[in-house]
Specification:
Layout (H helix, E strand, L loop, with lengths): L17 H6 L2 E4 L2 E4 L4 H11 L9 H4 L4 H23 L5 H13 L2 E7 L4 E7 L3 H18 L6 E3 L8 E3 L10 H19 L1
Antiparallel strand pairs: 1-2, 3-4, 5-6
């Protein structure tokens, strides 16, 4: 079996920063919440689908070996990041426990950057003493710290489409929805309301 053979939990990928992508692994279908990280295979598939975005390589063998402990860690991190994202989008204070979960994950894996020198160009290469899955989760946690303490935090927005529970980074002043599909659904709902009131 290869990691490409894994079925995802259906969690949408919108091209958002990794913390928001992880938060969006809880989503809605027809108004009902769906957990996109129910199994170890779901976690492995989510990591596989995002692996090009991680500093450290995520080989298939490590993805196929995701264990129940890593499932639990991923779900706890996802729930904490979702609480932080919700708080940022609604300009409220998140639960302290969510902050502590992210900080614990950041501290759990040692990471360092080393200098390498190509033919003419110096490069900084990130290294870790952890397994690739643990390193990936820690990278998401570190990006969470950077996102919510950085200049993009005010851009964190909840989708306005009816029934949507996803978040996105509002990169354009007129953007209201997480995806074109949600935009279409929202416009259809507005049209329906207008025509209903007209009759």
């Amino acid at each position: 079996m290869r990691a490409d053979d894994l079925e995802s939990g259906g969690a949408p990928l919108l091209g958002e920063p990794l913390p928001i992508e992880l938060a969006n692994a809880t989503y809605a279908v027809r108004g009902r919440f769906v957990d996109g990280l129910q199994t170890t295979d779901h976690v492995a598939a989510w990591l596989r689908d995002n692996r090009a975005r991680f500093t450290e390589a995520l080989p298939d063998k490590d993805l196929l070996a995701v264990d129940p402990g890593e499932l639990e860690t991923t779900r706890r991190l996802r729930d904490a990041v979702r609480q932080l994202t919700h708080a940022a989008a609604h300009r409220t204070r998140p639960p302290q426990e969510a902050i502590e979960i992210v900080n614990h994950q950041v501290r759990s894996v040692p990471r360092w950057r080393e200098l390498t020198w190509g033919d003419t160009t110096p490069l900084a290469t990130t290294h870790t003493g952890a397994d690739p899955v643990g390193a990936a989760l820690t990278e998401v946690a570190q990006q969470t710290v950077d996102l919510f303490s950085g200049p993009d935090m005010p851009k964190v927005t909840a989708c306005d489409a009816p029934g949507c529970v996803l978040y996105f980074l509002k990169d354009h002043p007129r953007r209201e929805w997480c995806s074109p599909a949600c935009g279409n659904r929202a416009r259809a709902a507005r049209y329906y309301e207008r025509t209903k009131r007209a009759h």
